[in-house]
Amino acid sequence: MNGWRSDGAFLVGLGCLVAGFGWVFATQPVGSDRMVALQVGQGDCTVLQVEGRTVMIDAGPAGANFDSGRRVVWPMLRRLGVRKIDLLILTHPDLDHVGGLSSLAELIPIDQVVMSEAFRYHPMVTSFPSLDLRFIRSGESVQIGTAELDFRSYLFGPDDNERSLITRVKWRGSTAVFTGDAGFREEQAILREWSGADWFKAGHHGSDESTSTGLLQAWKPNYLLVSCGRRNRFGHPSPRVVAEGEAVGARVMRTDLMGHLEFIPTQNGWQFTRILRNP
Ligand SMILES: [Zn+2]
């Protein structure tokens, strides 16, 4: 894995010497290059396997009666052949995104965790298990094999959702964007900075306050991924989001109805390959 870049300056490496942005660190194609949106109920967890390295965005939910980290994410990581998480990106410290972290930290090595600088002193974050936790600023990026990850975060509002760390994954000819639970204002900001994505994860589990009409019409993603719980009490996803996604030609794919969804990167964008079953 390569070093971090922030305005041309290299920051720390991920357990290795930093040779410069664009340098490919010890990755190797292993026939499992893919992205899997896990069915974790009402929450988020997406796994990226990049040339032998594993990146995960959010760790799934946990509550009084259900710990998706232990019950779903860990078994699925084993099924995917993952023995170590090289980089865990946490969008924001709400339990539907970080709840699974405690058990995962006991079950599998996690090399590095990143969050937005906005959460450095957040009470939930200060209670995290002992991990190599790095706080990053908007504009930083990291190269993992041939995949480039760019990060944005905004401070428009005081709410944790609004401060979600936003990630763009550019890999081969495919682009995916994850906005956590950010809303319209943050989406407008990334619209000004980024030209598009063929795979977009509906913001805030498909809530009506995210995934704006403007974003869908500007980017026209091929896939609109919704990660939410079956018959969740929030009414996610919003019928408006689903209808507007379909209206721009997106294939709306829901973890609650379909399961764990696997995609592969191609020169022409992400390609849905199959539904994975629980082990
Ligand atoms: Zn959420």
What would your notes on this structure say?
With 279 residues, the protein is α/β, with parallel strands linked by helices. The protein has a single domain (30-276), classed as Ribonuclease Z/Hydroxyacylglutathione hydrolase-like (Metallo-beta-lactamase, Chain A, 4-Layer Sandwich), CATH 3.60.15. The chain has 8 helices and 17 strands. The chain has a 9-stranded mixed beta sheet. The protein has an 8-stranded mixed beta sheet with strand order 8-7-6-5-4-3-16-17, with no helix packed on it. Strand 3 and strand 4 form a beta hairpin. Helix 1 crosses helix 3. The radius of gyration is 17 Å and the shape is globular. The protein starts with a strand and ends with a strand. Residues 7-26 have low confidence and may be disordered. The protein binds zinc ion. Residues 94, 96-97, 181, 204-205 line the site of zinc ion.
What is the topology?
Layout: E1 4-6, E2 9-10, E3 34-37, E4 46-50, E5 53-57, H1 68-79, E6 85-89, H2 95-98, H3 101-107, E7 110-116, H4 123-126, E8 133-136, E9 141-144, E10 147-152, E11 166-171, E12 174-178, H5 184-193, E13 199-201, H6 213-219, E14 223-226, H7 239-247, E15 251-254, H8 255-258, E16 260-266, E17 269-276
Parallel strand pairs: 5-6, 6-7, 7-8, 12-13, 13-14, 14-15
Antiparallel strand pairs: 1-2, 1-9, 3-4, 3-16, 4-5, 9-10, 10-11, 11-12, 16-17
The structure holds zinc ion (ZN).
The site of zinc ion (ZN) has 6 residues, from helix 2.
